[in-house]
Amino acid sequence: MTNTASTDTTSNGTTSNGTAAPGTAAPGTASARTAPSAGPRVRRAALVVAAALLAGLAAPATAGADTARDPGDADPAPARYTHQTLNWQPCAKQPALDCATMAAPRDWHHPGTGADLTIAVSRHRATEPARRKGTLLMAAGGPGGSGLLRPATLAGAAPAVAAAYDIVGFDQRGVGASTKAVCQTPEEFQEFLAGDYRDQSPAATDRVLANAEKLVAGCQERSGDLIPYLTTEQTAHDIDLFRSLLGERKLSYYGPSYATMIGAYYGTLFPHRVERMVLDSNIGFEGSWEKFQLGQPMSFQRRFDEDFVPWLAARDATYHWGSTPEQVRAHWEQRRAALHDAPIVEGSLTIGPNQLDDLAISGLYSASYFPDVARLLTTVDHWDGADAATRTATATAFNSYLSPDFLAEYFSVTCNDTPWTKDLDTWVRLGAENTARWPLVGARTLAFSAVCADWPVAPAPAVKVTGAHLPTTLMLNSVHDPATYYEAAVGAHRALRGSKLVTVTGNGDHGQYPGPNACVTDVVERYLLDDRAPARDLTCASPQVG
């Protein structure tokens, strides 16, 4: 994201890279900015050739077994894919679910080219078959989150929905138990996130740009024949294949965070295959990733300054970080400066200024994480007095945000899906501006955007979301969501004609369903269970928590 990945915390209590919630568990030289080394360019060649196959190919493949295609739907899958049988077996990591795998084309626009991909899928059968309404497919956020086991947690948190639906999930292509992308070793990943992204010195800027180039080269070297096909548009075709193998004419859909974009793309390509759709905490899917991510430094800073900092100040008696927002912010800057000068090293883990920022970023997704963040901040303040077990656990928590597996998928999708500004001087300038204005996430602008600026893959076929032929779509968003900010949700809502937006006030959590807000629960479940879509946009106030 410019600057952070769009994690989601809905239905599983973890961030979308699968890690536990916090506590659980200057410009460079012109040559450095404009002339990448010859080595990475050579390594790019195969990927560029593969990417060329994607450029300008907006029309899906035409062969298929489904001759009753509805007008407006993309063409269905070739028969050799639709004639597969899903061999359901209990999931190894979650016996409450059945798991299977399906083969999908590497490139849905040229399904006979390249080796097939494996897509891991899962299913939770409706607990009351007599009340069964159909199949509800859910996807994971990120991009980079694993969705394979999420049907079990959604079923546990929303028993009325679990009674009426088979809830199915999957690991998106490039993720987890599906054919997986690899870009970095753990050591390279640590180097990418090391140092202080606020540092605008020429040496620091050159280092950030070099790390971005190394990450892109690693993707090409380790997964170059896969990377061009890790896109939201390709994933939408995977979903429709899954639908056909389930024997369903239509699917209902629930998607949080990045999965709102997956759902919007699926609904655009296959509108007559959608029965009902709930999009929770919305990406600006009507525009580009670049546009959307450039809004995130503002929204994360807003959540930090207006929600977390006052919360922490009100609890000075417990955490001793200051009794006013001004004191808390001053304490934060003092602690961050100290870590810049002398990072804490615990075994192989480091707590530096970037890790301090990461802790706050990950903790802003839900107010329920605020106490964990505060406890960890207090431990760092009294590091010398903490026992060895506490220090190890704290260092692990500080270093648990993101992972090399997550970033492999995250950058593949966000850099592939839509065009990016390629001029690195522009990103050096924007990085400095965002660092000064919204430092928490704005400091990452250069590091993260430079990856997509250096990305050699042509953008995927354009998907214009309009809502045409879709039933009423239900959208949810809180007003202070840091990752999928409200302003982007409003833009997506306007683009998705016929959608109804539920605005959750007094709240900044990322992911609104299932959860404690009875108003949200009532609206969603009337829609999913009783086919009662709201007649107009709605507002749900958040319950007050002491």
Description:
- The protein is of the alpha/beta class.
- The protein has one domain (1-80, 180-546).
- 43% of the residues lie in helices and 13% in strands.
- It has a ten-stranded mixed beta sheet with strand order 1-2-3-5-4-6-7-10-11-12, sandwiched between helices. Strands 8-9 form a two-stranded antiparallel ribbon.
- The longest helix has 22 residues, at 202-223.
- The protein is globular.
- Residues 9-21 and 23-67 have low confidence and may be disordered.
Shape: globular
Tally of separate domains: 1
Instruction: Estimate the helix proportion, in percent.
Output: 40-55%
Strand order of the largest sheet: 1-2-3-5-4-6-7-10-11-12
Count of helical stretches: 22
**Cα gyration radius (Å):** 23 Å
**β-sheet strand percentage:** 5-15%
Q: What is the residue-mean pLDDT, rounded to a whole number?
A: 89
Q: How far apart lie the N and C ends?
A: 33 Å
Tally of strands: 12
Tell me about the largest β-sheet.
10 strands, mixed
Low-pLDDT segments, ≥5 res: 9-21, 23-67
Q: Tell me the structural class.
A: alpha/beta
